[in-house]
Amino acid sequence: MKIITVPNPILIRKSEPITNFDSKLENFCQNLSKTLTDTKNGIGLAAPQAGKNWRIFTIALPGKKPQIFINPKITYHSKEKKYFQLRNNNHQEPFLEGCLSIPKTYGTVRRWPKIEVSWQDQNTKKQEAVFTNLKAIVFQHEYDHLKGILFTQRVFEQRGQLYPAYPTIFFGSEENSVIILKKLISLPYLKIIAVVTQPPRPKGRKRILTPTPVAQFAQKYHLTILTPQKLNQEIINYFNKGKKPKLAVLAAYGKIIPQKLIDIFPWGIINIHPSLLPQFRGPTPVEATLLSGQKETGVSIFIIDFQIDHGPLLTQTKEKIRRHDSQESLSKRLFNLGAETLADILPQYLSKQITPTPQNHRKATFTKLLNRDDGYIKYGTLKKAINQGGPEAIEIERKIRAYYPWPGTFTKIKTQKLKNSKTQKRMKILKAHLENKKLVLDQIQLEGKKPAAWNR
To answer: Which of 20, 59, 273, 413 is the most exposed place for a label (fewest CB within 10 A)?
Structure first.
């Protein structure tokens, strides 16, 4: 009898009760017990692991003969689940669960230390017993198999420790990317083996070469930092050396990932995108959401492919847009939401309990890269919005929020330079609101001056 290993659909399917107690069942039970005994190091084996969707498992504790459980039930359990401890040379060590269907993988799982159970034997007779400690742990592990739950899912759900953890690469560059990276390093079943971020860029008036926020955060946590100018064969070769990554997570990285790089990750590259895809694909989804006056947005978690924001979805979570949301406030909220959603969805994805769903590509809309000139507002249009209101006032107010803090909105106003001459100066519009359908400027910044209240 061959033991089935992941990934296989039968391992995540609920088993059916046994109703026919015949010679076929008897032979299966004998083969199941023999297969367990032949493994030498196994102490439990469930029917789904042998390819049958039946409610049967066998347990063979060290030094004991295999015992068959048909249609088992847990009828009572102790109040709290706990980590089982092993005594080793006068000190306690956590018991690491393993599974014959997930070779070379172990983890800590909280289980009830005491359970009361019932089951049927091969003569259909009902049996009852109380199990504690190791037998209780093994019974619950095998009982989970009959529910289509692998022990790794329990590790993920309980934030337990998995050995070895999934080697993971993180791609990100912006301040909001740090929110996702923080969440990832808190998940004990992932091991961040490298962070890929944009190279340092000149910043500020003195044009000092400055690492990205992600690089600065990664440095504090002593993570390996990679800053390639291009995602070429050199970076692919780097990942293929030594401990190969199984998974990657991407959040606001700023470069398109080539297919050759995508292909090295068995679990793919998961992207956190701040819009409800397929709406607002591309580099500026939050800005486009605010500009278009949406009442609701959300975050999409999907597996990337060779096209921009085109891959199949794992999940989406919706979020209401607040009246005074700017690009800054809404982006931060969406990435926090994305971090929590990702932590919720990863256990199911890594346990093969989620099938990625294709997007409806016919409904796709796209956003564009922005530059500073996109924030320009003609002074005449601005003045009309302030004095008369109307559609222009609504559009400008949205634009001010959508483009804050970058690229920002500005106009050009004439100022007195000398006695008989005037010049134009840039005036940034930092904050504004609508009042009686008219635009009210709250804070501006004249070129070369500090932010101030608008008093015209």
So the answer is: 20
* CATH 3.40.1080.10 for the 372-453 domain, yes or no: no
| Second-level CATH architecture of 9-157 | Alpha-Beta Complex (3.90)
> DSSP string of 172-192?
E-SHHHHHHHHHHHT-TTEEE
Give the tens place of pLDDT for each residue, 387-408.
Answer: 999 999 999 999 999 999 999 9
Interval 189-214: pLDDT, tens: 888 999 999 999 998 778 889 999 99
User: Which residue in 240, 277, 290, 253 sits closest to 395, CA to CA?
Assistant: 290
- The band of 447, judged by pLDDT with boundaries at 50, 70 and 90, is confident
Placement of tokens 């063979």 in the chain: 60
User: Model-level pTM?
Assistant: 0.72
What pLDDT was estimated at residue 366? 97
State which H helix or E strand residue 285 sits in: helix 285-291
Measured between alpha carbons, how far is residue 331 from residues 18, 158, 338, 365 in Å? 53, 29, 10, 19
For strands 269-273 and 247-251, give the pairing. Answer: parallel
pLDDT (mean) for 212-233: 94
CATH, range 162-363: 3.40.50.170
